């Protein structure tokens, strides 16, 4: 970028401009943000994934110059979901404990968890089977600190001969980590240690793993996803796109808390291949008095990925799931079956009539309701002779005040639709810990990912961006669902 | 306080009868029931038991109380008459007696024959009921196995007709009875019985509760107990319209706590219904039969109660625990002795009214009252948040019965969160129940130190859990093992075997310390081993608590030797468990 940009921007009165780039599988999206956090412009260009990704980026920059003459970004940072996203395999010990902790940590890092192995890897055959899923990173967990130590070591040994170039993160029993690391390093594997994801029973600590995975994504993964000038890509890309979205969600929660709405936030991201739900909960531990103690608590921020709820690639999955949950009548299902099949066969399909647009809206609403149900935890009451045992598992969303929809479909469906989806999700599901009194809002311009990406560069500007773009979501009174 | 998310359908069935309608209908039916006249009230020229108690309250008369219940009314009546006669000779008057019934009285008459005979009085016909009110100069009280039981309506009618003035016990609404498992119907009958008593309020009839028969005995905070009493008063007096007396006392050893609680109860007693009695301490007697020591405990306990009654009259009778209470059913002679003690204690209390410093008692009373009000508010708003209709007495009694004492205290207490206490909060005023539990923990450590330093359990990894809702055994275990240096992973209560096994795997546990009190110890042990074997781990397993199970038609069979056969170490005491764990560590070294 030329130094003339600064004076051009100055002339336009916007100060320093930052370009936030999202290298998607199909489109490279670019947003120009002022230092005060104002969204100046939003453009996109086809991702030139087959040649040099920077060609597409230059195309996007040219488009920016066309719509916003005289605005030249002085800084640029990027996130990426191209090349199928960040594929990650988890090897842990007990399925419900460390393996699950590892899985949740990987999801929060924006990964696509392709396989979870519990009980550790016993031998090379197990390692080869895991590697056949083509993970970009492997995460080895298992054992509390001071607890079980043999599984981490045996998994490391099994991988030592097989892992090739796949970087390995070790985040299990801290006492066993040095030996496991040494085994892999001696075999020439790229290995990084992180704090134990489950250091004690009743404790979940995903942040260390999330940071390490993010760094490995830049140093070892992105170069394989996108062809581009050596080193340039690694300097530009900061994180995987879902990681940027979750970071944006966390920042939004802090913004809302500052405005007197401290209960966290839920974000539903309806996409062509998946529907993702991100949520943050208040930092202090949820009141657990009166409830049975949980073996594995929930993290402050979490992400769930519903791979069967994509608006295009998995549209039939939406219909099946919603019908299975009793959210669609027989007639409603019958109306949706063919259009869903059409979309799956033609993922680039664009609705070409009001009827087809309405189908898209219906699919989206069904996907949101199902995804919210799956993301929410549940409660259970067991009556015994000596009294009731109250249990609460999973994410307690009951006091979250805001559900935000993000993604292109929210140009056509709005906050009233989301509220309808919440009411639908609640129906007949007393045991689900869904929000009881949440308002809804939409992020049509998809600023959450941009804000998450920007937060690493300039949190002040990122906050300002969220406050400006999502101002309405902090002012309306909540309606009880 | 965050509202609890509880599934309403689990607590309250959707077809629950309307409690308000039950109350209305029961009151209408009760119009036809004539209220009898007890001889005691005639002797004293009072319209009712309550009226006489109010007179005693107002003129500073101390009234007395005992518990008694032989198998039949005839035997019981003879004993009462003997005691009354002894009173004339020895200078005391026995005013009221709580007839202790056989548990079978809580069942509808048709089921009583099928149930196991226990101790206590059985009333067979009208002559028994009327006899109880007329055959002696003493006022009979019926506390147990009535209002909270499946026989509530039928017994209450008999009691009203006979002329009983104080009819209980709402506190027992969480009781279970053999041959009866319909808790909804049981609570419906409780509500109806209270309504019948309410219908006779103007005849002076009072609904009674002995609060420590119910949840109060297990609360760790006296603020919770007081809030709970306020809740019952709300249900009985405000929702149903009965006059409600709440008696207490047996679990209290500390005199300041005991008298402060009595004063706090009187603050909550907004309609000034004279309590039936204050019960003597039944917890401080040692295991050795040292009746001389016990006599001092009894005398001081009742003297403080009398001093409070003199200074802040309520009309409640006083009770001196018979010195043999911990050992056996007291003899008539021992009951007479207890009344002599009470009488002498009264004279001493009257002689030195200024000897007690009431300031700390009032200060504690005020803390209890403030805490109790918070508990009541938490309880009602919490139940309302769950979806319980807090104007329906049936819904309230059923929901709270199903929640149980420990869940209610954990959800609605007025204390600050604190992980050093068994229920996760620091009490406003610790109950004697909690004090005894904490003392038990100290006692265990003292016992372990008796023959040298504490067993060195450093390096041993123990997973500790309770298989049921009871936390007290687990608390003593985790504290004691922790003090010995063990690394204890405390999983809390109501933990299932698969969960324990999973944790044993991740923590590479050397041992499991299991507390179990629900009488299924052998099945639990086998299940646990199955789960551990399925995961390929075999830590040493130690069991403590109530180690029995119903087997082959026999009830509560001691399964300790069977547990040993399974390779599980049964422990009678926590000390045994600690020493056993030290031996495990030695073996693994």
Secondary-structure map:
The complex is a heterodimer of chains A (481) and B (589).
Chain A lengths: L3 H9 L4 E7 L3 E8 L4 E8 L6 H15 L7 E6 L5 E6 L3 H14 L2 E7 L6 H8 L5 E4 L9 H11 L7 E3 L6 H10 L4 E3 L13 H19 L6 H5 E4 H18 L6 E6 L4 E6 L20 E6 L8 H10 L5 H16 L8 H22 L2 E7 L2 E7 L8 E5 L8 H12 L12 E5 L3 H9 L3 H11 L12
Parallel strand pairs in A: 1-4, 4-10, 5-6, 5-7, 7-8, 8-9, 11-16, 16-17
Antiparallel strand pairs in A: 1-2, 2-3, 11-12, 12-13, 14-15
Helix pairs in contact in A: 4-5, 5-6, 9-14, 9-15, 10-11, 10-12, 12-13, 14-15
Chain B lengths: L7 H4 L7 H12 L8 H5 L5 H11 L4 E5 L4 H18 L5 E4 L9 H4 L13 H9 L4 E3 L10 H11 L3 E3 L14 H17 L6 E5 L11 H19 L2 E5 L7 H14 L8 E2 L12 H21 L5 E3 L12 H20 L7 H28 L6 H11 L1 H8 L3 E2 L7 E2 L5 H18 L11 E6 L5 H12 L3 E4 L6 H11 L3 E6 L4 H14 L5 E6 L2 E4 L2 E5 L1 H6 L2 E4 L2 H15 L1
Parallel strand pairs in B: 1-2, 1-8, 2-3, 4-5, 5-6, 7-8, 11-12, 11-13, 13-14, 14-17
Antiparallel strand pairs in B: 9-10, 15-16
Which descriptors would you attach to this protein?
heterodimer; A: 481 residues; alpha/beta; Nucleotidyltransferase, domain 5; five-stranded mixed beta sheet; B: alpha/beta; TIM Barrel; Rossmann fold; 2 domains; five-stranded parallel beta sheet; 22 helices; globular
